[in-house]
Amino acid sequence: MKRRVVAVTGFIGSGKSEVINILRGWGYKTLNCDDIAKDVAEQKEVVDKVVELLGAQCADNGKLDRRYIREVVFFDEALLQRYQAIFFGEVRARLCDILRKMEGIVFVEIAVLDAFSFPWEEVWCVTSDRAQILQRVTARDGVSEENVNAILSLQRKCDAPTRTITNNGTLFLLQQQVAQALNSLLSQDE
Question: Which one, of 9, 64, 51, 69, lies nearest residue 33 by Cα?
Answer without folding.
Answer: 9
